[in-house]
Amino acid sequence: METRTANKLGPFIVLTFIYFIVGFLTTVNGQCQGPLKTAFLADAGALKNTFITLISFFFFLGYLLNSPLGGRWINRVGYKRTLLRALGIMIAGLVMFFASSWFTVAFPAVIAVLGPAHIPAGYFIFLTGSFLMGTAAALSQVVINPYVAAYELPGTQAVQRMNIVCAVNSFGTMIAPFFVTTLLFGGRAMEDVEVRQLMMPFLLLTVFVVITTLVTRRLYIPDLTNTRTEEGERLTRSIWSFRHFTFGVIAIFFYVGAEVAVGTNINLHALELDGNGALLHFFGRNRLMIGDLDLGIPALLATIYWGGMMIGRMVSGGMNRISPRVQLTVSTIAAALLMGVAILTSNLWLMALLGLFHSVMWGCIFTLAVKGLDKYTARASGIFMMGVFGGAVFPVLQGVAADLLGSWRWTWLIVVACELVMLFYALVGSRCREQA
Q1: Are strands 117-120 and 289-290 parallel, antiparallel or unpaired?
Q2: Straight-line distance from the first to the last Cα atom of the chain, in angstroms, rounded to the nearest whole number
Q3: 127 phi and psi angles, rounded to 5 deg
Q4: Residue 285 clears pLDDT 60, i.e. is over it
Q5: How large is the average pLDDT for residues 276-285?
Q6: Which residues lie across from 113 on neighbouring strands?
Q7: Domains with residue ranges and CATH for the chain
Q8: Which of 135, 118, 157 is closest to 82 using CA atoms?
Q9: Dihedral sign computed on CA atoms, order 387, 365, 303, 133
Q10: 3-class SS shares of the chain: helix, strand, coil, % to 5
């Protein structure tokens, strides 16, 4: 039985909270890369960076393969039931995370030999969990993005609502790096991490998501029929015939690639620097300590980046007179210039500030891409989320490049290229035309 409420904020708050969970667990997944590089891949040889970035690859593979399923489910069973299915898959992913560490501890002799690399079987179980978590995140966002864009909340416009929800999502991503270093790994230095430390935290997270699912099941989340087809109704146009939507999928592919590359690989670049490097010398020591906890410079960099995302989205959430096209144009130019300076000066602190400019890009691209789609919106949202697969491609491409070049520094030019593609979408590709 659903608990109904006349409060228009109710459904908006529920979906915002679930978006927080999605952001939090997405970053937990990515921030596991550095510690698991030690725990799982100590014997991976020269391919460590390639193997460890596969964690993000499999996460975002879930977006590519299963996002369209979300659009079909919305049209068939509605927004709420699709969201509940997504949460169920999220629970399954967390169970696989727990199983990966348990299996590695219980059966340490089960090893996969891939050329010179010796990989524990638990690593591949973790990859399976990443795929399920990516699928759950994709389905959740297929529900939340069009719902928030279309939901009538007095005194707001679509891009504002998107940025408010994304700001809360960014709060989850901001606190996740310290959750990984302090709770998951007990404040230990990354080189001292043990796989057994994963079991209890992931079990607790599973219980938390189970409770969230049970509560969500009882809440009233009204359906939005004007954004989806009714049973038996057929759409007459191909979704790809909307030119601005097609270019929007391409733009989001490059945006998520840039966002995830910085958010997950900046800590790997930080680990590459020695104790006398300019990055660590900023603190006058090699570790960031609070009491007996080693919070780690890499975690701080990631937190600055995701915190900048949150702050930027909070600020843009109050911009009800600046169009998404203008916001996207300014932010992409600024991001490209800042990344260029960070590369030339080898300054990761500047790179971490990219979160301020990346913050508005998701909301701007989505609202521009689905503008005027009406009953095509639910299907478009599912296809749009396929573009998030860029978060799998570019971090892995960057990891391979880092192995080939022997350094992360010049691999960040990949992110500059992504910013320029989004600038093209802001200036040209986002303009609506009748046919592609």
Answers
A1: unpaired
A2: 45
A3: -60, -40
A4: no
A5: 43
A6: 118
A7: 9-225+237-429 (1.20.1250.20)
A8: 135
A9: negative
A10: 75, 5, 20
